[in-house]
């Protein structure tokens, strides 16, 4: 009767809305690079230093291994980048690792990846901000003397910005990122120039210190273990690579191709910067230790607890540009800024992932709809709170926090690559075209190599870092996993409970008559409105009900009722204990007992107020009554609002809230999503169901 | 049509309810005494010591004045008791000082008294518990080493007990109170016996210490000021006397007579104990100082900060019974217990006063109805929180807290006695019978003397204690006064806004047609129920509305709609931003624009859940939508509940909550209150209005 007439109105409403909001715009590659790559590029600020720190355990001689470790990290980076280029072509909908794992390995694997990513986001905030503070502190000493305080202040600042809904502008990201990249490249080029062409000796601030080897003269298995530890620390440079796979919809067409190109570009930049910094660090004789207070010696005596160990980038910059010079300060500032922006990516990624998880019913449903300000706010606050706790517990020490960081990332990498292998297996079983098959074989080989390599790294990371803190990350993952499973089970159970039968009655009682009650306390405008509305609805019986709390008020009510000649009969319920709720509940229940097949409709006038404190003064009894009525079967409760003058203020506030921009809007791209790929079994079911 | 038929049902419902609840029982005098008098009687534990403390400023020689001060306190006590006996006969409804002041002096005076009483309750808790801890500490040293901690622990314990709603059993009060009174009397008698008959020398633990006089050799004006200060400290013994005037309804008949007798008895006990303790303290050479660390000297050297100054009762008990003996410990325990019970009276009095104030619209309305558990809980928590803050700020030192205590009490006394004088004036103007006139003259004289005396004491207290802490209490009173005035103004303003006109339309638009919408997301039982109910209500148009958040879900919904052949037309609203609220609000607004004189009724299925966390998973979008809909004029919102299985648990919890006993129920007496006396002008208006 009305299906066809829906279409014109829908198009009308749809177009109207879309033109109202100036919406998200698609990103060109030059803007997409900073937006998505700020996390991996900024990792370059701490990853090289981590390598040197671990190697220092065996003394300065072990630094000679660092180029080899850099090479290993570079190979891993190329592998991961190549693997993810397959991802972005195969899954252009932006589901990322979670989608790949769920589709190919099943829901439990997907949930594992989701838990790992959630933990990862928290640690991105903690590590990036701590490292940013450390880099900033090389230019501003005050900051580093109050590391934890400043770090938590930055977390609070980012939280407030995101709660308010600052639109994540692509340009906002581009500038600091390009300044940082340019700065590092200038550093490398100038350092190479001075060292190779001019022949200068550049000395890092720690060049004259010596390292006390905690375990000097390592050989054999112990040395290999140490090298593996150093390597797994260097893998911190890979964090954030997967973000592009989540953001494919935001690219301009051809989306997958552009995403893949950006990935490659990012990988290239990252490895260049990583290797360059390691080389310069060795050339300028940087000395860094895990326990600088004990193991760094100045003329044989330990430097003690007052010594601040600057990050490797800042030491190299001091050697190449000169400590305190303009390029030095600019680079320190840009590094800190890029790291803070990298933390901001987590604020945007967290709700995005939450929305996808909510769609699959692993998180409360209201996270799924866009622009749900309150739900996003809760997620953002949770993220910030968890990060702040970690920062506090670990004294904003990026080295300690990185030990927790890498686990989640590599769980995600490994499962996603394994999933891709299964993806190609599945497609190879169905595909006949030899050209396509060749490409699929190649892709599968890349993903298989990637899966093996990242799986190995994951094992190494677990082995070497478990006691150093990785167990905390694993614990976090387990907590997320268990909670999300429980939420899913709840929703499934409720869905079963609510599923309508196919019986003629649909499993639902069909009442035949309805009795209406209007709750009144005195005759004023809200009461009269409620009576008018109730009379409109033409129920089988209608009566007004009042509770005798104060005899004087009741008498006045009756008198006024008579005076105005209101036709609706007024029933007064006694209330010896001056309660409101119980007499009404009892009355409703007695009505239901008399006529069990009839429904009861209760009309309650409700004041719409403007300020939060006014809620304390109005509607409390009504709310409590409503709550109790809802437990009674066969009852529906109608609120008849009366907007007080003060509610205008609240209306304006609600309108403003509705125009709030959800974080991460830029990354999601516009709303019309291409259909997600379904596993073979499910798409067959869908095809069967869709037949008319 | 139905006014006469209300009566039988009302009687029926009324009787049924009253027999359900086993209700409050009326109190015989022997139980009423402990219930109402525990506060004044327990003041005896600290008031004598306060007198000695203040006098010690002028050295031990000033102790000689203490008997005179005791006499002054006794006279004041008799005056106040005699005055309040007039109160209980003239105002037997239990309104207390607030009612007397409001009725006779106007609403502002009444509000002042109310503010003073509220501050008084907070300080009763703080002072009684601190003093109880000090007395307990004389038997258990651990307690006194962690005074603040133990005091706050006791506050928390009492709060939990009251939140849970332990029925204030009269017997629970009686035993510790009688043990305390008996114990003190035994102390006095045995002390008198040993001292006068046996001729023993009883030495208090501080007998051998000497006092360093901070201002030795005082004379003239300064000495008088000091004596006045000591006197006003001794007035702490009067706190709580007015409680009986609040509790007259709880006595057995003849209520006023019994209340008056109990007052007299209580006064007698209190003065006897007060004087007896002062005498014994002097006889056993108790030395107490305001700053014991500096001013108590042991062989010329100050005792220092480690010294614990025991309360006077425990020092006297140590001298008479022997420190550590069984009677000593029993008395210490009974004293502490009685003080904790006195604090509990505040937990019961606060909500009682709150209920009366709410009836006059000075506090949120829901405090007025009995058994409103949530409102009472809020009040109890507020009281406990304020008391805990004070205890923390003043280190649980009862001496410092008492400086704040006395102001509120005497504001209340003075205003109440002045009000009584006006009361008698008014009655004398109307009364002709000479016998009654003579009695009224006598009562007026008593109240006038009481008013003068308490007014003087109030001035003395303000002068002597303002800088010592009384300003804090005054600040609290001002805050309460301002808040309550603001609440009253708000209610008055809203009442004006809502008052129905006398125009034919009653100032309210009368819509002629109604359009119903049912919100659906998928076809399950709650949806079917909502559709059934909406169909019952027979509105002019009815349609089902869904928002297209997920194309797959919408397609499934349409298919199911067709398959079941549901007659209600289904309209799908587009939502490019995956919001639910805005498309629906826009649709409703467009309906209203098309037909401005019609009402719109929106049916929203609502899940009734069992556990708090389930609220996070359901209904969130519905709640937000409801909130926005209520701002739109001409709209009513109907919740059609679906009780999930888990809601059974919540139903049971709600039933249990309904059977909760409100604190202070014992004191209020049963519900049928005699009519409150109205001021002359208002009762004339009532008589005029009541004419048919």
From TrEMBL, chains A, B:
Main localization (coarse): membrane
Signal peptide residues on this chain, from the entry's feature table: none
Region (Disordered): 653-692
Record's bilayer topology term: Multi-pass membrane protein
Pfam families membership: AA_permease_2
Coiled coil: none
Transmembrane segments: 62-84, 111-133, 139-160, 172-193, 218-241, 262-283, 328-353, 374-394, 400-424, 445-463, 469-487
Start-end of Basic and acidic residues biased regions: 674-692
Top-rank lineage group of the source organism: Bacteria
This protein's name: APC family permease
Annotated organism of origin: Streptomyces halobius
């Amino acid at each position: 009767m009305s299906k066809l007439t829906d279409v014109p109105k829908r198009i009308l409403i749809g177009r109207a809305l879309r033109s109202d909001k100036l919406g998200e715009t698609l990103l060109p590659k030059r803007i997409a690079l900073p937006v998505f790559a700020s996390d991996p590029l900024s990792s370059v600020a701490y990853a090289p230093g981590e390598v040197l720190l671990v190697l220092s355990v065996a003394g300065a001689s072990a630094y000679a291994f660092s180029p080899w470790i850099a090479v290993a990290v570079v190979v891993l980076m190329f592998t991961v980048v190549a693997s993810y280029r397959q991802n972005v072509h195969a899954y252009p909908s932006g589901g990322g690792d979670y989608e790949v794992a769920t589709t190919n390995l099943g829901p439990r694997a997907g949930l594992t990846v989701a838990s790992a990513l959630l933990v990862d986001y928290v640690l991105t905030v903690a590590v990036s901000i701590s490292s940013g503070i450390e880099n900033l502190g090389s230019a501003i000493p005050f900051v580093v003397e109050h590391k934890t305080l400043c770090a938590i202040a930055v977390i609070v600042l980012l939280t407030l910005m995101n709660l308010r809904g600052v639109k994540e502008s692509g340009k906002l990201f581009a500038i600091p990122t390009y300044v940082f990249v340019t700065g590092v490249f200038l550093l490398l080029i100038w350092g190479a120039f001075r060292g190779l062409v001019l022949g200068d000796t550049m000395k890092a601030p720690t060049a004259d210190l010596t390292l006390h080897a905690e375990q000097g003269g390592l050989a054999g298995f112990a040395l290999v273990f140490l090298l593996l530890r150093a390597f797994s620390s260097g893998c911190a440079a890979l964090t954030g690579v997967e973000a592009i796979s989540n953001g494919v919809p935001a690219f301009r067409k051809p989306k997958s191709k552009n995403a893949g190109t950006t990935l490659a570009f990012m990988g290239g930049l990252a490895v260049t910067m990583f290797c360059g910094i390691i080389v310069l660090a060795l050339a300028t004789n940087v000395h860094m230790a895990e326990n600088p207070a004990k193991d760094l010696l100045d003329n044989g005596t330990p430097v003690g607890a007052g010594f601040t160990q600057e990050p490797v980038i800042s030491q190299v910059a001091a050697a190449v540009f000169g400590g305190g010079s303009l390029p030095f300060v600019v680079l320190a500032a840009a590094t800190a800024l890029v790291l803070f922006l990298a933390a901001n990516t987590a604020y945007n990624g967290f709700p995005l992932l939450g929305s996808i998880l909510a769609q699959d019913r692993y998180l409360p449903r209201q996270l799924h709809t866009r622009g749900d300000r309150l739900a996003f706010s809760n997620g953002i606050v949770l993220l910030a709170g968890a990060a702040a706790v970690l920062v506090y517990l670990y004294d904003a020490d990026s080295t300690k926090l990185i030990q927790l960081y890498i686990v989640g990332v590599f769980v995600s990498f490994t499962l996603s690559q394994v999933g891709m292998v299964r993806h190609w297996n599945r497609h190879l079983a169905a595909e006949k075209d030899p050209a396509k098959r060749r490409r699929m074989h190649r892709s599968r080989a890349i993903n298989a190599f990637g899966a093996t390599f990242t799986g190995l790294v994951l094992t190494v990371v677990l082995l070497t870092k478990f006691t150093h803190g990785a167990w905390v990350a694993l614990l976090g993952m387990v907590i997320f996993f268990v909670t999300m499973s429980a939420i899913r089970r709840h929703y499934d159970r409720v869905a079963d409970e609510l599923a309508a039968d196919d019986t003629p009655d649909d499993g639902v009682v069909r009442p035949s008559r309805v009795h209406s009650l209007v709750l009144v306390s005195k005759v004023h405008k809200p009461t009269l409105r409620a009576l008018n509305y109730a009379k409109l609805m033409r129920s089988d019986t209608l009566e007004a009900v009042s509770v005798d709390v104060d005899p004087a008020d009741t008498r006045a009510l009756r008198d006024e009722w008579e005076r105005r000649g209101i036709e609706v009969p007024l029933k007064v319920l006694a209330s010896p204990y001056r309660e409101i709720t119980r007499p009404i509940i009892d009355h409703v229940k007695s009505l239901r007992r008399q006529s069990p097949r009839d429904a009861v409709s209760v009309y309650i006038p409700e004041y719409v107020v403007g300020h939060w404190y006014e809620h304390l003064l109005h509607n409390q009894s009504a709310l409590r009554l409503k709550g109790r009525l809802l437990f009674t079967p066969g009852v529906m409760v109608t609120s008849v609002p009366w907007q007080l003058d003060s509610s205008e203020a609240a209306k304006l506030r609600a309108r403003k809230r509705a125009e709030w921009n959800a974080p991460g809007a830029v990354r999601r791209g516009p709303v019309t999503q291409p259909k997600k790929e379904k596993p073979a079994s499910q798409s067959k079911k869908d095809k069967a169901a869709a037949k008319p």
